[in-house]
Design goal:
Rossmann fold; 30 strands; 6-stranded mixed β-sheet; 5 domains; alpha/beta; homodimer; 7-stranded mixed β-sheet
């Protein structure tokens, strides 16, 4: 995607249609914000009833502005919006931010108005931002465009924000402000009728001043477009994202306030698939963004800890270890150096506790040593400001190491920032990410490692399996569609599995008792017999399933009984009866615009009670398939647990990939369930399967 | 406990032995702090070499002070401390804060000095606080004692802090300060050689100005004393606590910086047993404390949500629901009222989204309605400050409702506090707990509900089971002790189980093959035979265990083979061989000063792979035993899952209680394992057990 949104983020001039003298109004606040933020271009308030506003000349109409207008806000009531869009078109405006609410989100009448202004905008090639939105901000000192009615005035910085919810966007922007961290660009596009979130992400991706992108999103209008853009951008720079509405109640609330459909069930999977760093907490997300804005990405997960206070390092270690980071010991060489340079009260380990009495010389030696130690990929600092130490000098040493950007540094900086302003300023100037708590600093560092994990992960190969028989599956599905059947019958399901070489229990079809006996003999005993006819939905409820049939005689008796019970038009699906294998489940479910969500797990209580399953989005590469297998908690049972022989992971992996290929080849398969697959020794066999179109 | 620590927290005069003119020294900083904080009593700096310090007269010795001294700091090097304690005794000082480090934590020489000054203090009845500590603070406007070298000057408030780690204590105090929340009292007692954490908790418990107690603790010198005090105090007011060193690496770090032993494994259980609210994150703890300081405890878990912005309420609901809170719908009556008073864009549900345009009248009507609604126990607010709304008036309405203290209110207050100072001040004056993020506000509210849960929980009854035979257990244990055996043999173990009426598989002892046959016949087949002799530790490794013995002949052959293999002095433990029951585990492990930790779980992979076990501290009441059973994730398998009959929960519960009684009656039992117990139908049977003294 190659959107040019310069008119929105770097406007050379801004008009406001609906400028107002009323202080508590959007038409006033946006002018105030542009002025307060010292916007570098001309501002044209539009209102036929007033002449002057906050010292600016007011024009009766956009058409009366005597110069070019690149960006216009519209803040007047909905019914008047389409005409003003038309006027903007005539004026040659390139982009419009419609702040006004009362369109799609209010029902059919609003939707009609939205359609109307969109049609007009398209006619003139105008991009529409909104409606029902806050707007955009660009903190670039050359631009300083505050085209928004929010209340936080960010310093320039490296993080750009795009938020579907203006409330959440404002909270995140404010959080960076409260941490004295600047922001680069901001966008909250409300209903997103034209300019979309993927376009904005793409724009930030191409913006050199943006080092990290922060995203809040509840639902996607076009998941495919989103995934394509997110994959491309996240390979270049980190996208830190959060969704909400994970609980049923939360999803309900999200639907009621946005004109879309909440899809947070799959949103986390979309994040995962596209290399987006997912968070479930705004504050953690903001803290991580600070680390990304200021520090390089670590090469690995090994942390050297330097502390001048005990308790916080214990807390930090708990958090780092829980996040999968390693705390390797100091080398003997380092220990020798440190023993000489530290006070007696220092504890020469990792964590390196140099005690509260440590001053700049001790910090310098400790920092240099940890930086040089090959076994550390990053540095974690606890720095409390003891009133009996020259903390400014200590801060200088920390800032020096941070500026080198050889290894990422995060700092749990424990102080009263009001009383320690110079110290705080030195750390800020050194771009040291400072956090109030050990946990938050540790989590921010862990996010850097998580991004490195994602980046260094092999994507793997999506196998295309030349041995599959696509044509026969096509025929089966077309047949079912012609008959307007959504649920495939057993014959169809197992024929499809066969066509895609998915191992399954042997089966045969028979229409009479005599044929059933012949076919059962062919399969070998014991067998399962299922009555197969379109009118029978819940087979076992009506006596249409018989398991563990052990001989000819039983086959005859069973099939005769089913014929007399269910009618002579019933066919018999006869299948090898397998027991005592270990149960596995593979499932697939189509998601609008996303592809299929593939599920893997162990069967029985593992899926039903313990919910121990893993998910990914198709197409699944070999690496992703293996990850699905290894991600479940009970994975050791697959690998071989406590001396018991494991299952054949290669075969399970291949089966997942073949299912992924099947649903990718035939997106009309809405649901597919292999439940269970049995793993015996070195083999796996599907023993029950279901497909829905 | 009834400690009078007034001399430490309400000193009428303070001396500082080791006052220093050097600005960056503890002997200077404490004087500075006392002055800066406007301490209400006289301050006596002590130093023979200077006459004046920060405008105060300096005395050569504590003995030269011409008035009574209630509290003294000692900040001089360790070797000089004992003599100064002696001098303080002569002077009649009541309490001493020894800030100096270099005692017990530095090894034997330090320990000797610590013993020395403690002995002298005891002689004079002086209480010692520290050494190696920060000190105490009391923000009471009548006192304003800042007997500490930290750097945060708290406003008066309702929360008192006690922290084993000064670093963590300082972080927490600073966090309250950053939130503009006051603090009542502060204590960080370092090595805790005399005045202990339980004493401080008890003192805060009796302090009327303290509404909530915040505790950070890594290890306990006297768990018994701690538990007794914590139980008593937590029934009166909330104790919010955190421990660290939960990971192995973290525990290691905690041991290296404190002269004790980290016991965080059991610390969380101690918190649970004594009604302490446990946190695993400093920030969450601080946020919860704010809610406790300002708001009443809710009667239940039903939350009414009022919001003027969409996204944050979606996030809030996710967090509230994840914490087990309920979001019931508005009543029809409330909906009618609200439809009339709200703007058209409002969404009249729970969450009640009154939109960003809502002003004070809309907030007032919404707040009043939610407050009156019977189905809400608490109110959660999202309040963003739209620049086009009179936010001060809105804040007034929120403050009014908060002040009524009818139902607890928490507020996710989203603003730039610098730009919205008057609005912020109104909320503060109304004691509205304000949080920057939806998640943090929701978590704070959840903590109030959690405290209500704890308080309203029935403690249950600790059954004493009159049918147990204590005497025979006494004899067995005494016998083993006389023989200096730590591991009890099978005969002893099963006799003890029998004495405490714990159901177990039938068993007999035999010394010859002939006797074995008789006994096996008596039990009934199949049986297990285990060789039983002191010199055989790992029975199965040496051919000393044979399972599933089905008849006389096999009994004879097996026992003969064991005799020839292991020697004729070997006895045989013959036991009913049970299979195919569902496996359960009950364990007990003695913890120094705590009692026994009791573990419960399902056997096999549930305990080994999924770590799905629950813990509690003995003695276990009936309510606690049932909780142990219900707490595991796989509990539905016990209750009866998907049509399968459940186990007999009453019998399991009773078994847990009997084991609890056994280890309470005989604390010398160091470890006890019933692994597995088999549950068949309505019965349970211990089939393997182990006890260690």
């Amino acid at each position: 995607m190659d959107s040019n949104l310069d008119a929105l983020f770097k406007p050379r001039s801004v008009a406001l249609i609906g400028a107002s003298a009323k202080e508590l109004s959007i038409g006033n606040v946006i002018i105030k914000n542009l002025l307060h933020y010292q916007y570098k271009g001309p501002i044209y308030p539009i209102n036929p009833k007033i002449d002057e506003l906050r010292g600016l000349k007011v024009y009766p109409s956009i058409l009366d502005v005597p110069a070019e207008v690149e960006l216009a806000h519209i803040v007047i009531p909905p019914p008047f919006v389409p005409q003003e869009v038309e006027n903007c078109g005539k004026k040659g405006v390139k982009a419009i931010i419609i702040n006004t609410a009362g369109f799609k989100e209010m029902g059919a009448a609003g939707q009609a108005l939205e359609d109307d202004f969109l049609r007009r905008a398209k006619k003139y090639g105008i991009r529409i931002f909104g409606p029902n939105c806050q707007g955009t901000i660009n903190s670039d000192p050359e631009i300083r465009a505050y085209c928004d009615f929010t209340f936080t005035y960010p310093e320039p910085g490296y993080i750009s924000i795009v938020a579907q919810s203006g409330g959440v966007g404002a909270v995140i922007m404010q959080a960076f402000h409260d941490m004295s961290i600047g922001m680069r660009m901001y966008a909250s596009n409300g209903n997103g009728s034209d300019v979309s979130i993927p376009e904005i992400i793409s724009y930030y991706g191409n913006d050199e001043g943006t080092r990290a992108i922060v995203l809040y999103v509840e639902s996607l209008d076009n998941p495919e477009e989103f995934m394509e853009v997110a994959k491309e951008v996240s390979a270049k720079k980190p996208i830190l994202a959060m969704t909400a509405g994970r609980t049923d109640k939360g999803a309900e609330a999200s639907r009621s306030h946005i004109g879309g459909l909440a899809g947070s069930i799959s949103m986390d999977l979309i994040f995962k698939k596209t290399g987006i760093l997912s968070f479930d907490n705004q504050e953690e997300l903001c803290h991580a963004a600070v680390a990304f804005a200021y520090q390089p990405i670590p090469k690995g997960r090994r942390v050297g800890i330097l502390t001048n206070t005990g308790g916080p390092s214990v807390i930090a270690i708990d958090e780092l270890v829980n996040n999968g980071l390693d705390i390797p010991q100091l080398s003997d060489h380092a220990k020798e150096i440190l023993k000489e340079s530290m006070f007696e009260s220092a504890s020469i380990h990792n964590p390196l506790d140099i005690a509260a009495t440590a001053g700049a010389p001790q910090f310098k030696s400790a920092l240099d040593t940890l930086l040089k130690e090959d076994q550390y990929d990053s540095l974690y600092l606890n720095f409390v400001t003891p009133p009996f130490v020259d903390c400014e000098s200590v801060a200088h040493e920390i800032a020096e190491v941070s500026k080198k950007k050889l290894k990422p540094v995060v700092c749990n900086y424990m102080t009263d920032k009001e009383n320690y302003k110079p110290t705080t300023a030195i750390l800020k100037e050194g771009e040291v990410p400072c956090f109030d708590f050990a946990e938050t600093a540790a989590k921010a560092l862990s996010a850097l490692v998580r991004y490195q994990d994602i980046r260094s992960q092999k994507k793997g190969k999506t196998e295309l399996f030349s041995d599959v028989d696509k044509d026969s599956v096509r025929k089966i599905l077309d047949g079912a569609k012609q008959e307007k059947r959504e649920v495939l019958n057993a014959f169809e399901v197992y024929s499809i599995l066969a066509a895609y070489q998915i191992p399954h229990a042997k089966w045969e079809l028979a229409s009479s008792s005599t044929e059933a006996v012949i076919k059962a003999n062919k399969i070998g005993y014991p067998v399962v017999i299922k009555a197969d006819a379109e009118h029978i939905i819940h087979k076992s409820d009506v006596g249409g399933v018989a398991i563990n049939i052990e001989n000819e005689n039983e086959v005859r008796k069973t099939t005769e009984k089913m014929h007399s019970l269910l009618g002579n038009d019933v066919n018999f699906f006869i299948q090898q009866f397998l027991t005592s294998g270990k149960e596995l489940i593979i499932g697939a479910k189509a998601e609008q615009g996303v592809g299929h969500i593939i599920m893997f797990g162990l069967g029985g209580i593992f899926v039903e009670l313990l919910k121990d399953v893993s998910f990914s989005i198709s197409p699944i590469s070999d690496v992703e398939a293996m990850k699905l297998i290894n991600e479940i908690k009970a994975a050791p049972l697959i690998h071989g647990y406590r001396g018991e022989k494991g299952m054949n992971k290669q075969k399970i992996k291949e089966c997942i990939q073949r299912i992924s290929l099947l649903v990718s080849d035939f997106p009309e398969i809405k649901e597919l369930d292999l439940n269970p697959l049995f793993a015996f020794g070195d083999e796996i066999w599907v023993v029950d399967a279901r497909m829905i179109l």
